[in-house]
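Service request form, structural biology core

Requester: graduate student, group of Dr. S.
Request type: structure prediction, single chain
Budget code: on file
Notes: please return the result as structure tokens.

Sequence provided:
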Amino acid sequence: MQENPYGIAALWAQGDFVIKAVAVMLLLMSVASWTVIVIRVISLWRLKSISRASNDFWHAHSFAEGLRILSSADSAAGPMNPFRYMADEGQAALDHHQSHQQDLHGHLPLTEWLVSCLRGAIDESAEQMQKGLAILASVGSTAPFVGLFGTVWGIYHALVGIGVSGQASIDKVAGPVGEALIMTAFGLAVAIPAVLGYNALQRGNKEVLNKMQRFAHQLHAYFLTGAAPKSSRVVVPLKEAK
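Core staff response, request fulfilled:
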């Protein structure tokens, strides 16, 4: 079978060190962005499953039973299970405040101490949710320019070669220039999924953070009054995590 003289294989065979380095760089950027997308999508799907379980938390007959409901949705501990983490941190903050009245933070009103601890739990969970998104943002903003650099470099050398040979017919120009333009297509093929993935993950994370804010407000009311809130749709006093 005759090899296509204007295909990707010809571009790789005829390209110099710079062209090959740009192609390898774009390949690594693509692998990194798709890896982040797959991992974060799985994580976001898991977080949404946990957030649905948080609605059942308030139907439990005890706080310990509510924790078991949250744990049954996902066995991960710490900020990776943010709703269970907030419940644990809130209970620990309440117990610590009551048993350390002589410390400096013991002089703070309980409501402010709980707000501070719950806000810290949200911030830690938000940091976990944002991991890897900087890679997508960087790839989405730089990949087109990396590909464009490869195109400019390839066209320059193609035109130099044509000038040296003295042949400027369409068949002599189309091949080298077309091969160089492939690098621009590579850059766009790498950047577009990264940008779309970044936007989709940011939107999904925002939905989960909004539910975390509502759950934190409910926990705040519960720890102060000892009773579950009557409505889950409340105005959240805690600062939104960035």
